[in-house]
Amino acid sequence: MPKKPAVKDYIRTIVDFPHEGIMFRDVTTLFADPRGFRMAIDQMLHPYAGEQIDKVVGLEARGFILGGAIAHQLSVGFVPIRKKGKLPGTTISQEYKLEYGEAIVEIHDDAIKPGEKILVVDDLLATGGTAGAGIKLIERLGGEIVSCSFIVDLPELGGRKLLESMGMDVHVLCEFDGL
């Protein structure tokens, strides 16, 4: 009997992208396959059955794809966290460190009401910098984060440990060794 495919089986690895020595975990192959994409969304939703979630927050950019699908399944609103300067209207921002410098993400200042229950989603958890900055923005608006959900974790980069040290519940579908 053939083995049933897992979410990890739909993710391709591109060697030396975007820099030499990087093993890029490309989820676009997962998104392109209807069974793989459905499986990923269903598995990302499963831990939250029966939980109160008011909004899903997606981190730029692949988190928008996942967040929109999950919000639709939950019949709740979707909120994007974007790179600085990409959102119209009044925003709040949060700076964070990258391996090679700093970046800033933003959220609309009226996107989340105090006390709303939030699920944070993205495709990949590496160092946790973007997710950590997103969490700080949500908390500044008074949102209560139920959990953070990712397709891929790269444990060697420490992102999960960082988010857990911030008091976050973290759910991942699969892990890959290396960078």
Task: Provide the descriptors you would attach to this structure in a database record.
179 residues, 5 helices, single chain, seven-stranded mixed beta sheet, two-stranded antiparallel sheet, alpha/beta, 34% strand
Supply the number of helical segments: 5
Largest sheet, if any? 7 strands, mixed
Catalogue the unreliable spans. Answer: none
Overall residue-averaged pLDDT value = 96
Number of strands: 9
Helical fraction equals 25-40%
**Spatial ordering of strands, largest sheet:** 5-6-4-3-7-8-9
Helix and strand pattern: EEHHEHEEEEHEHE
Termini separation comes to 34 Å
Radius of gyration: 16 Å
Strand content: 25-35%
Q: Helix- and strand-based class?
A: alpha/beta
Q: Assign an overall shape.
A: globular
